[in-house]
Amino acid sequence: MKLLGRIARPAMIALILLGATWFVVKEAIEPHWTIRLADLIWPGPPPLALPLDDRLALHLYTDIRPHVGKITPVQKGAALAQDGRELIEEGYGFGAPIVIFGDRAYLSQHAEVTPGADGRSATKRFRLDSEDTWTELLQPKYRPVAPLGTIVFTYTVTGPRSLEIAADFSGLTVTPELVYLTNEQGASHFRRYSDSTGVDRVLIDAPDTPDQWVLTRAARACFTSAERKLRFCVETPPDQPKYIGRERYLQFRWTGAFALSWAGVDIELARPTGVYRYKISVEIPPES
What we know:
mainly beta; Beta-galactosidase, Chain A, domain 5; four-stranded antiparallel beta sheet; about 15% helix
């Protein structure tokens, strides 16, 4: 027994040191947990809040908060909050860009938020300065690149629980093949999809299902939360391509396990220029 004890203690110490070394290395390459720890020790400034009614608001951050899941290191759009609780989880929020250029995807890690003078609008200037890469051992997923310019989103509350989003592409220095305007919140809240073509169904929690990325041309596409008694709907001109999806499961990468948890409607624009506008309504479903 003494011999086993003598062997076990050094082995345990070696395992602890190995685990600590691995943690330091992976956090140096692609920080996740250190970012969340910093949130607890040094909370950042509060978000800019755009009230939708007395219980609902949109939160916009200058930094990369909220820090959730795989997309912790990148910028998000507007987080929907109910009674102060953000419902975004691992979603990109309302109104954030994903740019496809040269068959590569680019995101933003730096942005500026400016409030409107009327208190009912705000702009967020996303700098496209990060490439979304395939997962490779000891390589960050989101790699800094020379900026491709900026896309400016303007969020305007046009009425109770009604929002207009305008995306201005004039600041881009390239002409992308595609741009996706993300409109996503948390999958644990928003499970049911419906649209103006009559589709109405619950999307399941499972990896690699067809529900992860489905083309629709419905003018109005919605996700409903029965628990929260909420529904958000993305409205565009008819025939505008959009991809609806929902993912809620664990994904494993060399940096660890991450909870994917998003549901939403991402608008697809081909070689966009100028300004594109669309609407989002946050509603209380009739059955509530």
